[in-house]
Inverse folding.
């Protein structure tokens, strides 16, 4: 086992739909992942930029439609911030609105992923994200 | 949106230049026309007045001179006659002096008779030449036929409609004869005055003249309009119907302010005297009036024309402005509506899809966790949950698509129809193989300039439908053909499947209408509605020919080139 595989990943999930959050968590279970969940934009914002900011994550799964602060707002702030600029951010959405997709990439999203209706497909997709961003790609080292 | 404002600016800039001058054109034309007319009228009036005045003065002077001379002579002669009683000398003198063109004559009985041309005509004796002979002839005439003269005078009076009492006054020795309007040689003559008196009675002469004046003043209507003339000889001597214009003024020489030369009758008719309140004469020239009127008419019509052009262009301009504003407002409204609908649909699809994801998820998790503990029926129920949520998802997807067709910008691009057909057929390869359907593609597929995505959607939908409703014929077949025709292309997708009853030929394109719903074939009932909307949005037409059991042929008529897409903002 290499050093990367043994690495303890920190993933932040911002998802207001508790069901979807549960599915994502379920899809990522069984991996050495420290998954932090925030159910609205404000909570997530406080986590990243508040006085008691958590450690820098390795991957952020960001729902587009969020209460209080939209996914786009968060995305813009994160990508505009020195510390989080290099963190891959995956936008998750139930819709495939072209304007939304364009906006996400313009604001610096690393990927825009549609949540499939089919549960199996949903699970597979989350696992694909995990495997691509946490296994296949090399991410910058984070301070502990 | 930003691209529109420069165009509006252009419009405003163009409006300010030439049309402003055009707008003033009517005023300019009217002013010029009126000035011209005034100048013309004034000039012609002044010229005419000057001419008349000149002639009038000339004639008046001449007349006055002669009359003065005649009366002076007469006066002198009367004086002499009274003093010396030398009648024969008096006769000679008077006859010689007086026989001017004014026709002052003495009779052998020393009666002075004032006659006019009428009298001259009546007697047949010209008084314009050879005074001596004429005077002698006159004297002879009067001597021979004093009685006849009376007769003639009566005849003259009759001819001139002189009242009989005038005649008696005439013959009584201090006769004055007047008459009202008669026409001699086309000229109205209203007064014929004759004075007869004894030359030896000097006071009687003046008394008679005074009498004539008074009678004329009384008989001729004052303030009458039209003006009355009394004509003497070739010269149109004017006896005014106003007392101050009478030739018999208080003091000689008499002044004739205005008179119309007889020989220039045209003028006398054209110059129409009218009386102002103060009695002065104003001349209005008919020719001048005509010119003035025509000028005014011309000016007026030109002004009207110019005004109508200007006002029309103004009206048009205003209309264009109004329409532009309306259009721009409508456009904005439309954009806002578009954005609103887009947002609405977005949130609906998002909000509806999320629970579907959840239902699907939990059903799957339950199914997964209870695996091995469930009987066949329960497993089937899970299957039904999944099928229904799938259907619901498809419905949402299709509704979304239906609402987007034609509302969102679809850019036309050059595409080869045959390529699109090939791709679509390839995508359905496994299903086609599975159902043993043979696909034939033939005809002439042109390149078209249309939104590729939409055209592909049409082809895809028609081919999927053909596959879906192929039923179970012996040799299932799908045939795709194309025929270019006059800037259009007719695309046909033919199958030998289940076919569609006639009553559904129209309905099949309506939303949520499904012909074979009872066969348990998957579908939302929106596919053909979306296709129809796409085709009609591209300016085309779609129809079906079909018979149950014999298959269907869907015809799509598309323009080879789509209309340019209006710039519509997509919802943010």
């Amino acid at each position: 086992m290499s050093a990367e595989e043994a690495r303890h990943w920190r993933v932040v999930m911002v998802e207001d739909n508790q069901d979807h959050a549960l599915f994502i968590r379920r899809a990522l279970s069984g991996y050495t992942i420290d998954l932090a969940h925030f159910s609205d934009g404000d909570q997530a914002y406080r986590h990243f930029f508040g006085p008691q900011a958590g450690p820098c994550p390795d991957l952020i799964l960001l729902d587009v439609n969020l209460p209080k602060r939209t996914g786009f707002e968060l995305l813009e702030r994160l990508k505009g911030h020195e510390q989080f600029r290099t963190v891959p951010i995956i936008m998750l959405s139930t819709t495939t609105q072209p304007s939304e997709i364009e906006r996400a990439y313009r604001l610096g999203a690393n990927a825009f992923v549609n949540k499939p209706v089919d549960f199996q497909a949903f699970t597979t997709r989350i696992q694909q994200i995990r495997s691509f961003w946490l296994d296949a790609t090399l991410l910058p080292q984070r301070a502990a | 949106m930003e691209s529109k404002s420069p165009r509006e600016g252009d419009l405003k800039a163009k409006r300010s230049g030439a049309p402003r001058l055009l707008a003033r054109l009517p005023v300019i034309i009217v002013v010029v026309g009126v000035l011209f007319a005034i100048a013309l009228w004034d000039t012609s009036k002044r010229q005419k007045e000057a001419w008349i005045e000149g002639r009038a003065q000339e004639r008046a002077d001449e007349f006055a001179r002669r009359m003065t001379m005649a009366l002076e002579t007469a006066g002198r002669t009367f004086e002499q006659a009274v003093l010396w009683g030398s009648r024969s000398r008096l006769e000679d003198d008077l006859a010689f002096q007086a026989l001017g063109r004014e026709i002052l004559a003495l009779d052998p009985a020393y009666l002075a008779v004032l006659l006019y041309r009428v009298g001259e005509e009546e007697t047949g004796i010209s008084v314009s030449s050879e005074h001596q002979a004429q005077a002698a002839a006159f004297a002879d005439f009067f001597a021979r036929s004093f009685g006849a003269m009376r007769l003639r005078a009566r005849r003259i009076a009759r001819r001139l409609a002189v009242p009989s009492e005038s005649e008696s006054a005439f013959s009584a020795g201090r006769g004055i004869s007047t008459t009202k309007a008669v026409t001699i040689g086309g000229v109205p003559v209203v007064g014929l005055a004759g004075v007869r008196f004894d030359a030896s009675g000097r006071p009687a002469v003046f008394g008679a003249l005074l009498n004539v004046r008074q009678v004329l003043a009384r008989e001729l209507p004052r303030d009458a309009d039209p003006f009355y003339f009394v004509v003497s000889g070739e010269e149109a001597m004017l006896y005014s119907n106003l007392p101050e214009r009478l030739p018999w003024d208080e003091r000689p020489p008499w002044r004739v302010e205005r008179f119309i030369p007889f020989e220039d009758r045209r003028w006398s008719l054209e110059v129409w005297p009218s009386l102002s309140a103060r009695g002065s004469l104003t001349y209005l020239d008919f020719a001048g009036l005509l010119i003035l009127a025509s000028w005014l008419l011309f000016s007026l019509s030109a002004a009207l024309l110019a005004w109508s052009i200007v006002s029309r262009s103004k009206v048009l301009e205003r209309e264009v402005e109004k329409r532009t504003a309306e259009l721009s407002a409508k456009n904005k409204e439309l954009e806002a509506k578009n954005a609103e609908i887009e947002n609405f649909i977005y949130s609906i699809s998002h909000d509806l899809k999320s629970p579907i994801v959840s239902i699907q998820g939990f059903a799957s998790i339950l199914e997964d966790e209870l695996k091995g503990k469930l009987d066949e029926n329960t497993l089937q129920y899970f299957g039904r949950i999944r099928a229904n949520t799938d259907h619901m998802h498809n419905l949402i997807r299709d509704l979304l698509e239906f609402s987007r067709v034609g509302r969102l910008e679809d850019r036309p691009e050059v595409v080869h129809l045959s390529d699109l057909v090939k791709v679509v057929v390839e995508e359905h390869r496994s299903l086609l193989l599975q159902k043993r359907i043979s696909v034939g593609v033939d005809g002439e597929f042109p390149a078209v300039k249309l939104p590729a995505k939409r055209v592909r959607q049409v082809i895809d939908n028609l081919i999927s439908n053909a596959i879906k409703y192929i039923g179970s014929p012996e040799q299932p077949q799908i045939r795709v053909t194309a025929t270019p025709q006059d800037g259009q292309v007719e695309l046909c997708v033919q199958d030998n499947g289940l076919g569609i009853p006639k009553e559904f030929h129209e309905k099949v394109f309506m939303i949520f209408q499904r012909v074979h719903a009872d066969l348990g074939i998957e579908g939302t009932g929106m596919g053909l509605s979306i296709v129809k909307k796409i085709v009609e949005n591209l300016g085309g037409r779609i129809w079906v020919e079909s018979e149950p059991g014999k298959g269907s042929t869907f015809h799509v008529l598309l323009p080879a080139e789509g209309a340019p897409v209006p710039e519509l903002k997509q919802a943010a």
